[in-house]
Specification:
Strand 5 and strand 6 (128-132) form a beta hairpin. The chain has a single domain (6-151), classed as C8orf32 fold, CATH 3.10.620.30. The protein has helices at residues 6-24, 29-43, 49-53, 62-68, 73-85, 134-140, and strands at residues 45-46, 70-71, 92-102, 107-115, 120-125, 128-132, 141-151. The protein is 43% helix and 30% strand. The chain is built from six helices and seven strands. It is of the alpha+beta class.
Length: 153
C-alpha cells in the first residue's frame, strides 16, 4: 500500500474524482467538455492574483489551483487544459490558451479546444458554464495572444 502526504493525497483524489465525475456524466465529446468546464467553474472561486498572492500576475500549477480552491482566469484555463489532457485517449486535437479582452476592455483568458471529429472549436470561459462558439468569441472578445497548451496527434 502506498502512503501519501495529506495534501498530495487530497489533490490526487480530488483530480481523480473530478475526472471520474466528468467521464461518467457524459455521453458525447461536447458533453464531456461541458461537464469539465461546469465542474471547474463550480469548484474554483475566482480571485485575482493580487488578492491571492499580492502579485499582479502569477500562474498556478493545476493542482495548486485545486488545493487553493481559487484562482484567476488563467488558472481556470490551465486547470481545464490539465483535466482535458488527462482524458485517455485524447478526444480533442489541441488546447489553446487565449488571452483576450472583452468589448469593455476587461482582461480575460479562455480555453479553446479543437475537436478532432467535428473540425471545429469550443471555447471554455470561467464566466459561463456554456461552451462558447467562434461567433460568440469574435463578437465579445479581442484576441491579443494565443499559446498552444497541448497538441495531440
Amino acid at each position: 500500500m502506498i502512503r501519501m502526504s495529506g495534501l498530495v493525497g487530497f489533490l490526487i483524489l480530488t483530480t481523480l474524482l473530478l475526472l471520474s465525475a466528468c467521464k461518467y456524466d457524459t455521453s458525447s465529446e461536447t458533453d464531456l467538455i461541458y461537464s469539465i468546464n461546469k465542474k471547474i467553474n463550480e469548484q474554483i472561486k475566482y480571485v485575482s492574483d493580487f488578492e491571492q498572492f499580492g502579485e499582479e500576475e502569477r500562474w498556478q500549477f493545476p493542482l495548486e489551483t485545486l488545493a487553493n480552491g481559487k484562482g484567476d482566469c488563467e488558472d481556470y484555463v490551465i486547470l481545464k487544459g490539465y483535466m482535458l489532457s488527462n482524458l485517455t485517449p485524447p478526444r480533442h486535437s489541441s488546447i489553446v490558451f487565449m488571452v483576450s479582452y472583452d468589448q469593455i476592455g476587461k482582461h480575460n483568458a479562455v480555453g479553446h479546444v479543437m475537436l478532432k471529429d467535428l473540425k471545429t472549436g469550443l471555447y471554455l470561459d470561467n464566466n459561463t458554464d456554456s461552451l462558447l462558439t467562434y461567433n460568440d468569441v469574435i463578437q465579445n472578445y479581442v484576441v491579443i495572444e494565443e499559446i498552444l497548451f497541448e497538441e495531440f496527434k
